[in-house]
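Need 2-hydroxy-3-oxopropionate reductase's 3D structure for a figure. Predict it.
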Amino acid sequence: MKKVGFIGLGTMGKPMAANLLNQGYDVVLYNRSVEKAAELVKLGARTAATPMEAAEGADVVMTMLSNDAVVLEAVLGEYGVIHGLRAGKTVIDCSTVSPDTSKRIHHELLGRAVDFLDAPVTGSKPAAESGTLVFMVGGEQAALERERDIFEALGSKIVYMGPSGSGSYAKLANNTIVGINALGLIEGLSIAAKAGLDAEQFLQIVLAGSANSKQAELRGGQLINRDFSSQFSLQLMLKDLLLAGDVTNRLQMPSPMLKAAAGLFQMGLGKGLGEADLCAVAQCYEEWMHMPIGKSASVEERRRTARLQLRVPIHLSVHQWEQEGAFTGQTIPGTLYDLSGNGLQLISEFPLAEDMFVVIHFAQEAKLPPITGRVIRIESDNSGSFRYGCLLSGLAPYDRLQLENYIASHQQDQTG
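Structure prediction for 2-hydroxy-3-oxopropionate reductase:
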């Protein structure tokens, strides 16, 4: 059997290396955290002190690492794989990296007469454990055929995509769909929960109809049970979406859904959810709704939901049309009184009308851009002031996170 150097024992790499051992391959491991190799050593693996050492004498070296910088260091660094491989051997990188990184490694190894395949995978942790990963492969097809037995030991489908970099392009396009699908599932479940529907019953409809997806099958139960244990981490999902964004920028291709998805996952990262599963971004929606996705709430319970009472001074820019092609505007003082899942509640002595748009300006210390809101509800009180419910529009996910943090700081000041 072939000797395989395997580098990277994270969520995906460890079960992949275990499958190679179970298939009878001679496996030499390298991982920065040595303790992760202990279970695999019991299965017959040996360990190396550097990637170069893991590559010495190997027929094939596989890498499954977290990002471009780590892959480049492991393959081309001072103690990298490139210094331990003989001519005629093969490096297979299963990481999700930039196509430019894959092409660079291909070029460097070609100078040593070593083949390189960029072969990222889809399937997450369960598929890595069961040996049913799907590989998308870029590089020389002859090299793929020579190492097909390795791929078949780890996956159920191997698709040749084209020359070097093609596998990485395919993976970024694929993960764009994964991220958007996951957010679609979360948003749909959130709507159902906020409407008081039973989450499990609603999920049955999703799984049985045209809204079904692999994300619904894999993560629907996780979301309902609020199980955010990582099958594929939120921070890695965000990394892939940002890489995909770099590709679309370079291709001069608009990608509005990709950018919206990346913004939402950035919010999740900002909330400290990076190491949790990608579906943990649902916690952003739960905070906006003031309720969990997996637990239905009656109308009365939702009415009793605690609201965040505030007294934050603001200014409002109000614009009114005078006639076609002209309008007048003025700036008026106001107070931010309440934050809800979908908007803000403002107080001002100035009379406004429903469906009027106002621009909300915060104090300079907030470091927030002006925020546009539409007046959807008006209440008056005995003091001569008006309370306005404003639906926010066009608010970027990052700005929303900044707004929440600013409001939270004021709440602490008031309660402290």
